[in-house]
Amino acid sequence: MGIKPHNYLTTVIMRCTSLLVCVSALVTCASSAGILYPRESESREVKSLDGMWNFRLSLPDSLVGFKERWYMKDLSKTGPVIQMPVPSSYNDVIVDKKIRDHVGLVWYDKSFFVPESWRQQGYRVCLRFGSVNYAAQVWVNTHLVLSHEIGHLPFQRDITANLKFGRLNRITVAVDNVLLQTTVPQGSLQNISTNTGPKTIQTYTFDFFNYAGIHRSVFLYTTPIVYIDDVDVTTNYTEDGVGIINYNIQYGGSLSSGETLNCSITVLNNENVREKITVITNDEEGLSGVIKIENAKLWWPYLMHEEPGYMYTLEIRLSTTWNVDDVYRLPVGIRTIKWTNTAFLINNKPAYLRGFGRHEDSDIRGKGMDYALVTRDYDLIKWIGANSYRTSHYPYAEEIMDFADRHGIMIVDECPSVDTVNFSDKLLKKHTTSLAELIKRDKNRPSVIMWSIANEPRSDQKDADSYFKYVVEFVKSKDKTRPVTAALNKWYSIDRAVILEFIFVYRSVAIFVKNLDGSRPITAAIATQLDTDQLGQHLDIIGFNRYNAWYTLPGHTEIIKSRLEDEAAKWHAKHNKPVFMTEYGADSYAGLHMGPSFVWSEEYQVELMSEHFRAFDTLRSKNFFIGEMIWNFADFKTEQTVTRVGGNKKGIFTRQREPKSSAYHLRKRYWSLANRLDGAEFPCDIQPYVITNENQNNIEL
């Protein structure tokens, strides 16, 4: 019996109730347990399935693979296949427009061996995907073992019973990239007429390309029969320098009758030397308790301390009477987060965010995880003097987050809800599921300082109040240690011609009224986002996006300072909460120089940034403004539109990670802030040599 995909052609699937129940059960089973990142240890082995996989589109229709049961045999026996690298997006790897723009299902498969020794040692074997976008169903040796919806998040399952130890195995994956009004993020399907007949295309309102495929690593990993399933950690410290780690450990597997369980904890410093610790357990087995470390080193953001990103390692050993011990090592940073109505504090020190909105995006690989790219990105983040970024507009790879932990980069961790609209119970369930999976994955990371529940939701619409109130309460039920935020920005779908027509009509009406009665002034009430937004009241910290002098009055940078200062002050006055800017910026085409500055030139991007800097400095002096994040770190790909030349060009770096003029300008800004606010020393190359000045001891930037 063929299992239908749970996303594409929803009306077909709704007729297959029994199949939906099967898929639902798989999803529940896969998501109810822990999702610890696979790490080798004395008791665990990790085998990567990354590499070249067989790949083919589901043609001539998106359901043909299910109708013909492609999962029952090698994919190469179903028709022509190509080799596709995993991890990567499939869209840009092959020079084929049909693959790039495909809507619907694609299929992957790969053969692999499983050592006989794993069976002999009684290992439990799990299959884990870091991310498949947007939805996936997975078969191992013809058995359906996994289903998952919502990209950018990991999922896994115990597949021990489905494996052939010491023999060849096959994994088959069906991937669906379709977005609907009940997916996260949302989209719509549109039918168009073409020269060769009708065609279905994908539409969406968000401004980045809907890359699809197996985006992150695929692992097999082993555990003993009784194993460490999940770990919860919170941290604190005392005034006399004692670091505190509160831990709670969940285990999986079944104990035999009369079998006992014991958990022991060791803490290693960043040189893998055992720390002297005191452990106070809360239960007989030692599964929860408090660890105290004398003279503990705290986790600090980059440039706020001479040793940022300091990480300990929590070594957890789970022992049973008759089974093999399980050992798992979890990196831990000791730090505190607090927030008031005017400030955000790390380790009781006010922190000012200087950073970016970003994207997982690069040439050829799309959103595919790539260590070389990640290493380059973090080097540039530190070169420029940033201390933070938002994972716009979805969770980033765990390997990327590891870098943030180790380098002291603060993360505003965002779920995949973009341009949220048409609020419904079904959408709400998926929205909160994405947040539950995100929090479960990233809850122990010191770099994660806020949860962002949405980007530019239509928060003025009916039902937005109750919808987002529930979302915020849901997040707080999962984690009360971090503030909840969102990037607010209400966009109106009105083009320039419509705006000009409105101005003409309004002016004509005003003249008509004036002719009837010239003795009274004329006024009109115009609703702003501040008047109509229903989300800000539920947040702990207000983030907002605004593109003054770009989408609004492009070319007129003289409007920026007053408008930005006014809006930020009003957000704070209305909600009495800290405020930061989550997006601002302008596109610039690398190499386009115009004097005087003109839109799309590198000079205009720099000029626009400077006017924002003026406003930010005024706002900083008012003690409620906690950060500035430019849009974007690097140029990125979008859907095809006449307003995008090869994608969005608001990056201060090109898509190939080369600096524009704006990168050097922002570098001076961020290092100056780090120097003034945190006492960081300027790098020696921040100001190229021009002329000696014996009377000037300090460089004023």
UniProtKB/TrEMBL annotation:
Pfam assignment, any one: Glyco_hydro_2_C
SUPFAM superfamilies according to UniProt: (Trans)glycosidases, beta-Galactosidase/glucuronidase domain, Galactose-binding domain-like
EC number: 3.2.1.31
Domain Glycoside hydrolase family 2 catalytic stretches: 340-495, 508-674
InterPro entries with a match to the protein in the record: Beta-gal/glucu_dom_sf, Galactose-bd-like_sf, GH, Glyco_hydro_2, Glyco_hydro_2_AS, Glyco_hydro_2_cat, Glyco_hydro_2_CS, Glyco_hydro_2_N
Activity regulation comment: Inhibited by L-aspartic acid.
Keyword Hydrolase: yes
Domain Glycoside hydrolase family 2 immunoglobulin-like beta-sandwich: 226-335
GO CC terms in record: extracellular space
Domain of life: Eukaryota
Annotated keywords: Glycosidase, Hydrolase, Lysosome
Keyword Hydrolase: yes
Gene Ontology molecular-function annotations: beta-glucuronidase activity; carbohydrate binding
Biological process annotations from GO: carbohydrate metabolic process; glucuronoside catabolic process
Record's catalysed reaction(s): a beta-D-glucuronoside + H2O = D-glucuronate + an alcohol
Domain Glycosyl hydrolases family 2 sugar binding as annotated: residue spans: 46-224
Job of this protein: Plays an important role in the degradation of dermatan and keratan sulfates.
Subunit: Homotetramer.
Family named by the database record: Belongs to the glycosyl hydrolase 2 family.
Name by which UniProt lists this protein: Beta-glucuronidase
